[in-house]
Structures are given as C-alpha cells and as structure tokens.
Amino acid sequence: MAGDMRMRCSKCGAENREGAKFCKDCATPILAKCTHCGATSQPGSKFCDECAAPLTATPSASNPAASAPIGVFTEPAGASPSDGERKTVTALFADIKGSTELEQDLDPEEARAIIDPALKLMIDAVQRYDGYVVQSTGDGIFAIFGAPLAHEDHPQRALHAALRMQKDLRRYSASIVADGGMPIEARIGVNTGEVVVRSISTGGGHIEYTPIGHTTNLASRMQAVAPTGSIAISEQTRKLCEGYFTLNPLGPTKVRGVSEPVDVYEVTGLGPLRTRLQRAASRGYTKFVGRQREMETLRHAAAQANAGHVGAVGEPGDELFETLKSRRTMTVGMVLDGAGP
To answer: Is the peptide bond prior to 148 cis by the omega test (within 30 degrees of 0)?
Structure first.
C-alpha cells in the first residue's frame, strides 16, 4: 500500500483507491488480506475465512490488528460500530465457585497463580470447538458459539466445550489439592436462541464483538442455578442436543428475571448419537413417494451385493474406495421397506 492509503493491484501494479474491489486498469479483483493471519479473502468479505477476524480494507502499519487480544476486534480507521446483525447462537457462561472466598484468604499474586490456569483451561476448551470468548469476568468466562464463525451444530459444540472444561478443571483441581490447596470447581450454564451481535468501541481503536438479547441473560441464569461442578442447559438447547448427550431433568426452576419457571437439564455426559443421520433414524426416515423405479434399482443393488457382486468407482487413494476394493462383498446400507434418509 502507498503512503496515501491507496491499494496496489497484484497483477498490473496500478494504484487504486482505498476500499476498491477491482483494479481500475485491468479489472482484477483486489483480494482483502487479513491482518491477523495473513490469509486472503474475496472482495467484500467481512470476516477472514481462515481465522474469523474482521477484515479491514487493506493492512496498515497504523492498524494493530495482529496484536489485538483474544476476543477483541480492531476497528479500521474511520469505521463506526456496526448496527448489529440478528443471529442464532449458543451462549455459555462458566464461573469458578467460591473464588471470592479463595481470594480473600490469599495474596493477590497467589490467587492469580491459581485462577489464571483455570481460566486458560476454559478459554482453550471454547477455542477447541471454534467458540468465541466474548469476555473474561475475572473468575469465569462468557463465550458464544455460532458467531462470528458460523457452525450449524453450534449447540453441540458448546456442550462438548463445557464437558471438556469440567474434565480439565477436575484434573487441575486434583493437582491443587495434592499440593495442599483448596479444590477448584465450576458451574456452567448454556442457552440457545436469537441475539443481535454488534461491535462496540472500547477506545484505542478496539471494538468488542458482543451479543445482545435475552438468550445471553438466560444462559447466565443457567450458570447460576447449575449444581456445583455441573452443566445446566435450557429447554431450547435440550431440543437441539437430545440424543447427542445424556441429560438429567432438574425440573421447572424459578430463575431471576424470568416470570415463568424454566425447565432446566443437567448434562452428565455423551449420548449414543454421533451424527444427524443417526438422529433422523431415531425419529423415523421420510417415506419415499413415487420412486418405484429408484426402489427397484436399490433392491437390485442389494441382491447383487448379497450375491457377492459389487462394483466401486472412485479416486485412487480414496479411503472408502480402497476399503471397498479390498472386500469381496458388502451390504447396501439402505432401508428397502419404503423408507430412506
């Protein structure tokens, strides 16, 4: 980039105005370069498709995005906070129980030496499943899944992260107790729903990506009512995760700020389901209608497979193709009684 903030075309070298999407001389698309990881994205992209960081028009020496802290975005020069975007996300709140009592009996540096590793375990668990840490509360974290990096299975990702948090914290607590310290325990609350996500300027060129709405408030309430060392979720999250995890109903619970009792469930572990296809099978497949010829083709393929005649077409080296080549027979995994996925 030139000193006057113009953009240089990577093909012909012509200088273009800041924010240009195509070169004015050769019409070559001007790719946006992420100042956080260095990856390039298509013109007009709002976020990097490698690390989900917001994209500025071009990298600049005055833009410190590469050194921005986790969970904080850097605001481009002249930009204003976003008006907000409606998204469905899963919010997670995790809090270390009894941290206040722990800190009052210890020197601040000693307390920090115990709390900080626990917070790091929480943050690592969130990032492992592509969640976004909105903020640290000193003795806990607030995170969301499904934004800014979108995932269709964000409720399951949030619960996988919560289970990992509890597992890692139990291991960490055992090491502290073995050294003569007090145990570390956490409560985690999760809720899924719609929010408006927006960027709020915090000064110094930094903006925070923050969700606003009742969904996050209810997630915080789930954390407050969760039994110590456990994970509490709402009815909405249960609907999206049932079968993937084992759940223990805690019954209707009165939570602060909500007029009616809320059905709360405790997550106790992984369930029997692993894929959406398995969940669809448990509910019953959609019936085939008007597909007689296709059904006959499937029946014929099943008969051929049972007779040991199997044909496989695929790219050399493909794991499934090589497996099929190594076997003389296979069973066609389709339901031939008029149902299918």
So the answer is: yes
Tokens 């076997």 label which residue? 327
Angle between helices 154-178 and 108-128 (to 10 degrees): 150
| Residue 326 one-letter amino acid | S
> Cα–Cα distance between 191 and 180 in angstroms, integer?
36
- Taking the C-alpha atoms of residue 24 and residue 45, their distance in angstroms, rounded to an integer, is 19
Q: Write down all domains in the chain, each with its CATH number in brackets.
A: 1-67 (no CATH), 85-278 (3.30.70.1230), 285-340 (no CATH)
Kindly state the average pLDDT of the residues 187-207: 84
Give the chain's length.
Answer: 341
* Low-confidence winner among 46-55, 238-247, 256-265, 268-277 (lowest mean pLDDT): 46-55
Q: Which helix (H) or strand (E) holds 193?
A: strand 185-203
Q: What is the DSSP letter of 54?
A: B
Beta-bridge partners for 102:
none
Give 225's contacts (C-beta < 8 A, 6+ positions apart).
189, 232, 250, 253, 255, 264
